[in-house]
Write a structure and sequence with these properties.
By secondary structure, this protein is an all-alpha fold. About 75% of the residues lie in helices and about 0% in strands. The protein is elongated.
Length: about 190
């Protein structure tokens, strides 16, 4: 096993212990000692991989969302990736509330933003290829930021129950926005591929 594989396995073991502990107590009451005792590692190993428990929590959430989202073919299955994200929010409310209460609204939105930036970039690239056009780097980045901000914002609104709708309706609405607006923007700002 390579060092990278071993490191990933260690991080996963620490994350699994944290998740297990979160099922029984609040994040603010969990200690590094409890985590390392649960997974049979030592304190030095924990601090080799993470600066603190907050670092472990951030990594755990990023891995949970990002690893599964990236397992989809984002050029064709972005609706499935979005469905997964909504399901993840519903199934991990306790963990997400913990993050929300310990890190705040902005940090949680930032986590969603980072995880969805690659999804949005893939959707834009697929649309460019389909239309035989490409966008200059600045406008491509602008669209990525715009759509990612909107997507992470709506997921935060769903999480905070500021926007309540049927799960499928949410997916349909997001898909409609991408299908209706993105090709038009690319056609207006794009340059033909050579």
């Amino acid at each position: 096993m390579t060092h990278e594989e071993q490191s990933l396995q260690t991080k996963k073991a620490l994350a699994a212990s944290l998740k297990k502990l979160l099922a029984h107590k609040s994040f603010s009451r969990i200690t590094v000692t409890e985590i390392i005792e649960d997974c049979g590692l030592n304190r030095k190993t924990f601090y080799y991989h993470f600066e603190d428990i907050y670092g472990l929590l951030r990594w755990m959430l990023e891995q949970d969302l990002l690893s599964v989202i990236l397992s989809f073919d984002l050029t064709t299955d972005y609706e499935q990736a979005l469905t997964y994200a909504i399901d993840y929010i519903e199934q991990n409310k306790q963990l997400l509330y913990c993050i929300f209460h310990n890190f705040g609204h902005d940090e949680m939105k930032h986590l969603f933003y980072r995880d969805f930036a690659q999804l949005v970039d893939s959707i834009i690239c697929a649309s460019e290829q389909k239309l035989g056009l490409y966008l200059d780097e600045d406008f491509h980045r602008f669209l990525e930021c715009y759509y990612t901000g909107a997507l992470s914002g709506i997921l935060m609104a769903v999480f905070e129950k500021l926007y309540v709708t049927d799960r499928q309706q949410l997916i349909d609405n997001v898909s409609l926005i991408f299908h209706a607006s993105l090709p038009t923007l690319i056609e207006q700002k794009g340059t033909p591929r050579e």
